[in-house]
């Protein structure tokens, strides 16, 4: 995403909080032909900077079915420690205000704001498509991550079970994979993950942004609580599943308990750790600033100033090698804090190694079971 292009500045209108949702508006996406704003008609109907209380009925979640053309996505980014990924859903009901994937809803003609967390696209044919792709003669196994863009265990997974279907196909094909989530839903699939872990075929990562439950409810309103996520780490570790923790994203002057999160996750059983700094591509920059004005108006300017210090003076810099960690003095200090905490807690920072040699493509379709 080009960091030099941004949607128009958001109009100065009252910010409305929505119960159980992260975004405060359905901001126009960058491909929209029209943008709506507000103006003062002289009757004091527009109170700049005001925040309206949470509404009684939160916007409902809608599932939109999609037939995907491919299940596995590839990337050649030096910033990402895996070559391929699978994401059964587009949009995410967790509502994390910092989610870098929000602007992808613009490609659907939907808002990266409330639409992103209320209009969830489910790829109904993804299990069958993955089966075909793994069985293709030219397919070569490599590290696959599930849930790298939007959470594969978000609430709709309880009913749709697309993630469970994907795990079943990968398990039959003996294909290694990793999962990343901030949901307790992963515990449902321990019956599949435990034997795969014993064979070196799976690893899991749990994101814990902060240990402050009150802050977490504002940042990621429908995700599991921080303490519940620590229990998830413990459950995975006790089942023998290699588990790491993501302390991402780091947001200046908002979540400042990185060391405490790392210590709690290590005590629960995490053996690997990584972090990223806040990323604000495209429409996410004004959306996040709306959120700041709603929840932390007294420090909003200070937060954005520090964000820009780590992004070369811009809201976001998409340059490889910098987009995940930022640059400059403050980014370097954050990196030092992370490295020293990991060394003290004896974390490994390299990714968990999985075994590619067991892959059996004919097993993906069930054919291998005949012999």
UniProtKB/TrEMBL annotation:
SMART domains: Elp3 (SM00729)
Keyword Cell division: no
Protein's UniProt keywords contain Metal-binding: yes
Domain Elp3/MiaA/NifB-like radical SAM core: 82-305
SUPFAM superfamilies associated with the record: Radical SAM enzymes
Domain of life: Bacteria
UniProt xrefs under Pfam families: Radical_SAM
Keyword line: Iron, Iron-sulfur, Metal-binding
Protein name: DNA repair photolyase
């Amino acid at each position: 995403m080009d960091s030099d292009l941004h949607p128009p500045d958001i109009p100065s209108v009252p910010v409305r909080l929505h119960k159980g949702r992260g975004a405060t508006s359905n901001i126009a996406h960058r491909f929209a032909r029209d943008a709506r704003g507000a103006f003062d008609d002289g009757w004091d109907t527009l109170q700049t900077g005001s925040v309206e209380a949470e509404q009684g009925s939160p916007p409902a979640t809608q599932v939109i079915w999609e037939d995907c053309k491919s299940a596995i996505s590839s990337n050649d980014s030096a910033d990402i420690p895996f070559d391929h990924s699978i994401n059964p859903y587009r949009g995410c009901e967790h509502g994390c205000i910092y989610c870098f994937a929000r602007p992808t809803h613009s490609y659907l003609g939907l808002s990266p704001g409330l639409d992103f967390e209320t209009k969830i696209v489910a790829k109904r044919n993804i299990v069958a498509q993955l089966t075909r792709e793994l069985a293709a003669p030219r397919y070569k196994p490599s590290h696959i991550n599930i849930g790298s863009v939007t959470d594969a265990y978000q609430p709709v997974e309880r009913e749709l079970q697309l993630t469970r279907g994907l795990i079943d196909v990968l398990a039959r094909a003996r294909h290694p994979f990793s999962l990343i989530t901030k949901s307790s839903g992963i515990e449902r699939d321990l019956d599949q993950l435990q034997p795969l872990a014993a064979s070196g075929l799976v690893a899991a990562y749990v994101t814990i942004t902060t240990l402050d439950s009150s802050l977490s409810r504002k940042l990621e309103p429908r995700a599991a609580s921080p303490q519940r996520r620590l229990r998830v780490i413990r459950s995975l570790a006790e089942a023998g599943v290699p588990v790491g923790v993501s302390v991402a994203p780091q947001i200046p002057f908002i979540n400042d308990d990185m060391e405490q999160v790392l210590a709690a996750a290590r005590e629960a059983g995490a053996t690997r750790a990584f972090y990223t700094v806040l990323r604000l591509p495209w429409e996410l920059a004004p959306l996040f600033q709306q959120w700041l004005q709603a929840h932390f108006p007294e420090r909003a300017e200070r937060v954005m100033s520090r964000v820009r210090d780590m992004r070369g003076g811009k809201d976001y810099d998409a340059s490889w090698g910098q987009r995940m960690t930022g640059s400059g003095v403050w980014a370097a200090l954050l990196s030092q804090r992370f490295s020293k905490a990991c060394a003290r807690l004896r974390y490994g920072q390299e990714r968990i190694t999985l075994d590619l040699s067991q892959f059996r493509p004919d097993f993906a379709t069930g054919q291998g079971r005949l012999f």
